[in-house]
Amino acid sequence: MKLSTPLLASILAFIASSLTLAADRITIGSVGLATPESVEYYADKDVYLVGNINGSPLDKDDNGFISMVSPNGKVVDLKWIDGSDADTRLDAPKGLAINGNILYVADLDQVHFFQLPSGDQIRSVRIPGSTFLNGITPNPVGGVFVTDSGLAAGEGGFVPSGTDAVYEVTASGKYRALIKDPDMGRPNGIVHSAGITTIVTMGSGEVSSYTASGKVSPLPKPAAAGLDGLLLMHDGSFVMSSWKSQSIYRLDANGSYKILAEDLEAPADLGFDTKRNLILVPLFKKNQLVTLPYRP
After folding, report:
1. Global pTM?
2. How far apart (Å, rounded) are the C-alpha atoms in residues 116 and 122?
3. 135-179 residue pLDDT tens
4. CA nearest 206: which of 233, 174, 238, 234?
5. Mind listing the domains of the chain with CATH numbers?
6. Helix (H, G, I), strand (E, B), or coil: what is residue 8?
């Protein structure tokens, strides 16, 4: 079959694009990461903080840890914050967020506070009724917003717990529920800007924005569900990870989707290196961290 010139050009452009994405990808592996679920760029020290569950995402085993990794892939401190230390509580750390001089960590039914730059634990705020605190993002006035994905242990894996919610946790350790709805679709990644909170869901694969008054505005859905990490970029677009498609998507201001990267097994909670313009992707099942250049 003879291909037309436009079709051939399109195929060649697709192949070139795919090769470019693969060439730009840098994988950091075999460095001791253990079920990495999240990564946060710590600009003051120019390092990546990687949250390691180190076992089951549901176990209260106090063996989670946070690694400090340099942008060149070298481990600065594998267990910079270590749950096995007598003065530290860290079970199954998921989302990480830096706000001011505090590192906030979502961990099952608690949000932990760690002082920066020391890494010393300040306090832990338990949220009664929560089961799977997961995504987390800074609140401009201090503290964080955190999602409860509403998951619990069941036969053969996770089962819905019906605790789907979004909470506000203040820097002083107070908390309140902003949204509680068992039909949220297992909320995960979250960002907040200009009074609008945007959330992606693991179960239903939805992207929705919420106002302070509770008004919901659905955004276009990507092709696949299993959404995990969410970033709000400087150009106003959203970047999110999908376990189902093993991809990183970009949703632009016009509601159009673009695939930024593929073939990423279990891409979890995303980070962003603002100095190098890199998307940071922890691979939950492969104990790896991948960096990708952000090109709108």
Report:
1. 0.91
2. 10
3. 999 999 999 999 999 999 888 788 999 999 999 999 999 999 999
4. 238
5. 5-293 (2.120.10.30)
6. helix
